[in-house]
Amino acid sequence: MIQRPNFLSLSAPWKRALLAAVVALFVLPTPRAGAGERNVVATVAPPSSSPVDWAKERQFWSFRPPVSAAQPNVVNRQWPRQALDYFVLAGLEAKKLTPSTEASRRTLIRRATFDLTGLPPTPEEVAGFAADTRADAYERLVDRLLASPAFGERLASLWLPLARYAEDQAHQVGADTKLFYPNAWRYREWVINAFNRDLPYDRFAALQLAADQLEGTNSANQAALGFLGLGPKYYNRGRIDVMADEWEDRVDTVTRSFLGLTVACARCHDHKFDPVTMQDYYALAGVFASTRMLNRAPDGKPEDGKNDAAKMNPATLHIVEDGPAQKLNIFLRGNPERKGPVAERRFVRVLAPGDGEPAVFASGSGRKELANAIADRRNPLTARVWVNRVWGQFFGRPLVASTSNFGHSGEKPTHPALLDDLAVRFMDRGWSVKSLVREIVLSATYRQTSVSDTDKTALDAANENLWRMNRRRLSIEQWRDSVLFLSGELEAVGGKSLELDDAKNRRRTVYARISRLKLNDLLMQFDYPDANVHSERRSVTTTAMQKLFVLNSPFAIAQAKSVAARLHGSAGDSDETRVERAYRQLFGREPDREETAVAAGFLRQPTAAGLTRWEQYTQMLLAANEMMYVD
Asked: pTM higher than 0.85, yes or no?
């Protein structure tokens, strides 16, 4: 029988060593706080973890700075129109694939107009472009669309779900709306205007984190701080565990939106896949622990937080400001009651310039230094992540499928050299979003037809090599806006949000009120993301409820009536003439003989109770797949 030793039987040196080990598990010396800072007392040592080989990790594809590439050699040198085309064509030729033919002019103008403005072209615009024989006709079209105020509204629909934009909280007790954001629309307005004036993306990112510190508290860009100031607020906000949940939201939203990195996974332990430590997480969480959310009135003073949303000054901004600077302890296993060593506020180590530790943030909360680190050209992720998001917006498939995860557990790029080259040229062009979009839309790759090919599909069913354009379903914003546009009832105004179900709401869908508590049914049915969290992409579902909405909702019926009235034209028009007008208005093309014959047969039937035959026919066209997809 083996006798287990007890503490009293150990020799004195062994007793001292064991006691020291036990004490080390529960007590650590508290680092001295800097001037004006406070520390949370450290009481427990961090768990041991395998050391990170930083030099090796910095060689991972997304942690290396992007580099421009020499123009690839291609056989078909007549096809490329933009620099990006050479990379796509080189990949196609390596796989024994050839590009598809260019789409028709009517298809191109419909595609480009939807992609750049979120709206369909008018029949006059389609006819004019189809008849324009100038060599630069398409370039002129793209430049006109980029200059449209609708461009910013379209790009805002990409950005706002990333920023988990919303105007309330996921909880409400009774009629209490003190934690709501009735003026959230001012941040949305700033985003739209930023895209329309082509604010450089590095500045776009930095201002959303630290506009007050970069430009002063009187800056015209103060509303940009809504990126942080519109975050979730929870009840019992004075409790450390509740505050920790709010800090996690800020860290997660900032790092996934701008860096494509899941830093919040390191809240309870070092990241399981990426070189992100708990030290990294709590270094960033400390920035937001040193930042206060506030409702700032027009006079610059904080507005009384006891006011319900309805009583708030309409010019009040929901933003952030620095509070007392503090360094957080690492919370062991994410438990705020188990304190590890203090984490100095700083940037993520693997992304910091050089090979050593990143510099400690010494200015207030550290938001300004964080903003500068994210917008720094030497940061390997910021440009890559944004370029990838924009690519996905216009091709329906990003180069990196996991758009908010560029780490080890994310997907690798299908065209790594192309992604890098685009990112470098994006920065070289002053981080101009419009220049990036222009190159993409003018490319031969973008101009391809979406018609499938059996032989090519057998070699590349997912179209990873971009041998054709992807057919894409319209977002709910595009579809609803198009219906209002076709009925002649779309109001080109923004401002304060309106409920989407409001019968008087004829504004673009981007101006609808977005709720965390209960997302509008129409938005939810058509795959608008959950506003409680950063949403990197939208699901694309096909459900019976979607078609039932188009067939039965008061909105769809009212719009079908309005569209039918616009199509009616003069009293002497024949049904055939009106059918042709309908196809030109809704689909940007002429109907073929079979479509005209089917329409004529349907319209000749007697009208039943309810909608007229023409109104029923119009409603069917609005519900058609061609109305909901863009080729």
From this structure: yes
